[in-house]
Specification:
This protein is α/β, with parallel strands linked by helices and 164 residues long. It has helices at 14-21, 38-49, 54-64, 80-92, 110-127, 138-141; strands at residues 4-5, 8-9, 23-26, 98-102, 130-134, 146-151, 154-160. The strands form three sheets. It has a three-stranded parallel beta sheet with strand order 3-4-5.
Length: 164
């Protein structure tokens, strides 16, 4: 299968597309590969690119998300919050220019959801990625520079947040 970006045929498999073009994605349901450890899940995007520093970078990000001690655990051995932190580390590996997050706190309890919000915002700030977030959670949306509100597929409100 071929992927088209802005009308250009990239001639790469869709599975490799996100890793190659520098887009990180955080899914609501984690989408970790169950047969890979946390460490292996995080380093997959860099391995697809053939990056020789994949191991080092994966370990750095697992440390950053507080999971270096769980690196050899499989997704089934991790809590929902831990799985989401692995997914976030994987999304940020390779310092993507664009990070997409789809309801990243949707499957988490309030305490874990707050930790994930703080983690996403810190990594976004530290790495300088453009960050597009889809959420129904107003406590998460208030952190955005700009908020677009959609109803029935149409933009009904578009406002920029004042920053102090």
């Amino acid at each position: 299968m071929v992927t088209i970006l802005d009308g250009i045929n990239l001639k790469i498999p869709e599975k490799q597309f996100l890793a190659v073009v520098g887009i990180g994605v955080v899914f609501q349901t984690f989408h970790l590969i169950p047969t890979l450890t946390a460490f292996e899940n995080v380093k997959v995007p860099l391995e697809l690119r053939g990056d020789p520093d994949a191991d080092k970078e994966a370990l750095r990000l697992l440390e950053e998300v507080g999971l270096s001690d769980r690196k050899d655990h499989y997704p089934v051995q991790l809590s929902g919050g831990e799985q989401q932190r692995v997914a976030i580390a994987r999304a940020f590996i390779g310092r993507p220019a664009l990070l997409l997050a789809d309801e990243p706190t949707g499957n988490l309890d309030t305490a874990n959801g707050q930790r994930i919000i703080e983690l996403l915002l810190r990594l976004h700030h530290d790495q300088g990625s453009t960050f597009i977030l889809v959420t129904h959670d107003p406590t998460l949306a208030i952190h955005a520079d700009r908020i677009l509100t959609l109803r029935d597929g149409r933009i009904v409100d578009d406002r920029e947040q004042a920053r102090s």
